[in-house]
Amino acid sequence: MPKDAAVEEFAGLVRVLKARDGRSYEALGRRLSVSASTLHRYCSGATVPEEFAVVDRLALLCGADEEERRALEAAWTEADRARRRTASPVPSPTPVPSAPESDPEPAAPEPSPTPAPDPTTPDPTAPDPTTPEAPRARPRRAAPAPLLVAAAVALVVLALAAALLGHPTRTASAPAPASTPPGRTAAPLPFTWTIGSQLWQGGCGHTYLVDRAPRAVAPPPVAADSGAWAGTHGAVHGGEALVRITLQGRSPSDAVVLQALHVRVVDRAAPLPWNAYRMDNGCGGAVTPRHFAVDLDRPRPLARPVDGLDASGAEVRTIPAVSFPYKVTSSDPEELLVSARTAGCDCRWYLELEWSAGGRSGTARITDGGKPFRTSGTRGRPAYVYDSAEGLWITDTESGQTG
Q1: Are residues 203 and 73 in the same domain?
Q2: Domain limits at 220?
Q3: How far is the C-alpha of 76 from the C-alpha of 51, rounded, in Å?
Q4: 212-224 residues labelled b (16+ CB within 10 A) or e (exposed)
Q5: Is residue 278 within 8 Å of residue 384, measured between CB atoms?
Q6: CA gap 333, 249 in Å, rounded
């Protein structure tokens, strides 16, 4: 039997979320408190979840924005209706024969134009005078009552089933339907934003966690090629992730006011048990840029503005931190640098930027290409640095961690 179009559309959206995240069915299922097979059935369209809450948690985990979550909920609503129709089809009413008042007796044959019967011959149709007729007729008249009651109950049940199927109900924990009418999209943001998520301190200092032995890890790249190197090795930022956000208004005259920057952690797990590979063996620069410091180990992390320092001249100069509210236009862009650190978790997180412009206001979700950023602690992990002379990774003895 072909799948319902609404179910297939919903399953397609779930598959997109799963592919975007990149984790296995088992790993995602653990985060959602469902089995890997159940999540696979959601993605294939074999099953539609009874509540939207589990799908909404998946959307948040995979970094979906508000518009995507509304579209996902609308698709789930239609798929859920299709599931209910399939699970409980309206049965065709079974005709209930009307009960006779007595057991059917063979119809007496019509009298044939035969001569009058011989009075000496017994009439076969006459009742047997030895048979008590009244007691036999009474049980026959009592039989119709249960049959009529059963027929009435069956008709009531069918009517109730038809009414319920025509008006499916939502569970109390499911969110309300999307308020955005189908086919209508939200107005575009009055500004653009881009990110850089593979940055190193001073252009040289960074640590990656990689689930490979040293002999299977390529030499460290230059900072400009860090994204390709990290993608090839499935690397995760170790200890710290630096994210640069470049913001620019769409109009040279109408300013966009940036109100605040928030941190949202969508998943916490134990630090990854992988090897730590350092891209340098100590480096530094004359300029420490201003930035927002984020402690991911706190229950509710904040983006705390920190001054920068410029020691390139004769004296050290302070670079004031970004203070909200802050204005940007097309001719006056701004860069925000976020340093997110952790020692005790494998954290997935994203940023929310509050803004207002032209009588409008909203929140922009800042993600890593639609996925949450990821940072994991490195404490206690074997650490390695690259020996260029020998052309191999060696234990980083200065860090106090051995391989």
Answers
A1: no
A2: 191-399
A3: 9
A4: eebeebeebeebe
A5: yes
A6: 7
User: d(Cα 396, Cα 277) in Å, to the nearest integer?
Assistant: 9
pTM for the whole structure: 0.58
Q: Name the nearest CA neighbour of 200 among 218, 219, 221.
A: 221
Q: How far apart are CA 197 and CA 304, in angstroms?
A: 19
Number of domains observed in the structure of the chain = 2
> What angle, rounded to 10 degrees, do the helices at 144-166 and 133-142 form?
10
Residue 94 has pLDDT above 70, yes or no: no
Whether 298 has a pLDDT exceeding 80, the answer reads: yes
* H or E, element range at 375: strand 373-376
Q: What is the CATH number of the domain that holds 46?
A: 1.10.260
- Give all strands (DSSP E) within 202-325, no chain letters: 207-210, 236-238, 240-249, 256-269, 275-278, 287-288, 291-295, 304-306, 308-310, 317-319
Token digits for 334? 């701004």
| Residue 335 · residue 243 · CB < 8 Å | no
For residue 154, being part of any structural domain is answered with no
**Considering only CA atoms, which of 7, 13, 8 is closest in space to residue 85?**
7
Single-letter amino acid code for the residue at 143: A
Name residues whose C-beta falls within 8 Å of residue 26's C-beta, 6 or more positions apart in sequence.
36
Asked if residue 264 lies in contact with residue 352, where contact means CB atoms within 8 angstroms, the answer is yes
Q: Domain end: 84, 107, 122, which one?
A: 84
What integer is the mean pLDDT of 248-257?
90
Nearest alpha-carbon partner for 225 in 199, 194, 195: 199
172: exposed, middle or buried (C-beta count within 10 Å: 0-12, 13-18, 19+)? exposed
Upstream peptide bond of 325 is cis (omega within 30 degrees of 0): yes
Among 62, 84, 106, identify where a domain stops. 84
What whole-number distance in Å separates Cα of residue 295 and Cα of residue 399?
A: 22
Query: Which DSSP category does 398 fall into?
Result: G
**Is residue 160 one of the residues assigned to a domain?**
no
Residue type, 216: A
- pLDDT given at position 259: 94
CB atoms within 10 A of CB 211: 13
Could you tell me the pLDDT band of residue 120, with boundaries at 50, 70 and 90?
very low
Q: Does residue 144 fall inside a structural domain?
A: no
